[in-house]
TrEMBL record:
Binding note for cofactor: Divalent metal cations. Prefers magnesium or manganese.
Catalytic residues as annotated in Swiss-Prot or TrEMBL: 12 (proton donor), 83 (proton acceptor)
Protein name: Malic enzyme
Cofactor(s) it depends on: Mn(2+); Mg(2+)
PROSITE patterns linked to this entry: MALIC_ENZYMES
Residue stretches making up the Malic enzyme NAD-binding domain: 179-445
Organism: Ceratopteris richardii (Triangle waterfern)
Entry similarity comment: Belongs to the malic enzymes family.
UniProt-annotated binding residues for (S)-malate: 65, 331, 376
Amino acid sequence: MDNIKQFAPIVYTPTVGLVCQNYSGLFRRPRGMYFSAADRGEMLPMVYNWPADEVDMIVVTDGSRILGLGDLGVQGIGIPIGKLDLYVAAAGINPQRVMPVMIDVGTNNKELRENPLYLGLQQPRLEGEEYLSVIDEFMEAVYTRWPNVIVQFEDFQSKWAFKLLERYRHTCRMFNDDIQGTAGVAVAGLLGAVRAQGLPMSDFAKQKIVVVGAGSAGIGVLNSARQAIARILGGTDASYREATKNFWLIDKMGLVTKERVHIDADAEPFARDPEALHGLKEGASVAEVVEAVKPDVLLGLSGVGGIFNQEVLEMMRQSTSARPAIFAMSNPTKNAECTAEQAFKHVGPHIVFASGSPFTDVELGGGKIGHANQGNNMYLFPGIGLGSLVSGAQIISDGMLQAAAECLAAYMKDEEVEEGIIFPSISSIRDITKHVAAAVMTEAIKEGLAEGYRDKDPKEMAEMSQEDILKHVELNMWHPKYSALVSSPR
Ligand SMILES: NC(=O)C1=CN([C@@H]2O[C@H](COP(=O)(O)OP(=O)(O)OC[C@H]3O[C@@H](n4cnc5c(N)ncnc54)[C@H](O)[C@@H]3O)[C@@H](O)[C@H]2O)C=CC1
Ligand SMILES: CC(=O)C(=O)O
Ligand SMILES: [Mg+2]
């Protein structure tokens, strides 16, 4: 907690990625709970083997998309461990009340399946109903023992991430961090990029945004940004349709248009109409799209390191924005779409830059600094989890997530944003998290979702002032303060 800036890159991205890649060789003792396909029918009794009586926070993965490193099977447990370390440091969740979980349904990583040291099931991943039955059983088991626990889904491949979110979010206290946490952070960053141009927030509705990557993270960001723009435009059905025109979506097959034969249902609303293509064709490359669109924002959630190459970045010089924004959000560092240095060098000193993994600031000469912001869901997930926990929210609603994003955006001062600093320093993450949690709790109360926590019942919560809410959040954050074992001599 005292040295979070130095330690976050170790317990979290990028080092946690390296740990996951080598986990079977590094393993000494389990630091989380493993539920495997072979445990079907046994998960409820298994849950009672977890040594802590109370669990507040679970982070669960099936290891199928670990950062931008692909399917790492059970070795992905490093991610829940690292995310929960941040829950302790940033949100003040008691470290005895966190539970990292790996659901082992096999792996499609052939190399791991053939590695005699691999710790997980050496079989291809379960699919379809069989897969769902494992996740259902796990969810039922943990909520039976700990009805108030918050479950954060992390690093599931997109194919399942959206389905599982839809399956549980209406009845359980759960969220998907890659879809929902990332979206909030990205929207806060996009609003920061508008402010950095000296424009009013309503000008967000005029921004041209190219998103590279149509997975859980990219589509989550697009949905959330579309919602924010549609609200500016009036919030009608027509404004939602209008808002989609701001976006250009590129996946591994290039620009996504309505001409695409097999288009993902989640990506479909963002497919460009043939009459609004600016002369581009279905499948156009990143460079072609940037050249034709001259976007205000180029945002990467593709997992492909270096895809914002010199050619692409030099084309961003033609951006119609006074402060073009380059968000290279993929993790870990090697998978970032470009480095901070490359972005400032090839686009120019006036850009706003953010990346998923940390880069150091760039010296621009003449005493000027190019700020390398870290645009990572770590700014939001601890506050979303904490705010949901201490309000006793029944579910985690869109309104609560939006309140979290707005709180993060408002955290930055105008002078900072003008300098291109759009996210706060990691060293203030505990304070940010406290405010985000209070915003989440305020919204949960407003929506009638707060069921109370510890000595506070819903009626008392409904009467709390902003100050009371902040105090309630703070009081429920754990601090590592221990009583002295030996009393000092008189
Ligand atoms: N900064 C942050 O807070 C977060 C960053 N991420 C990062 O985002 C990345 C993607 O995550 P997901 O969306 O869950 O993964 P995913 O695997 O579901 O999606 C990747 C997307 O990139 C596209 N893609 C792949 N190769 C491409 C290429 N050569 N050109 C253009 N598009 C290409 C794919 O078609 C797919 O749509 C990962 O590296 C992850 O670490 C994810 C969540 C949060
Ligand atoms: C940051 C994060 O959640 C990811 O890269 O998947
Ligand atoms: Mg993740």
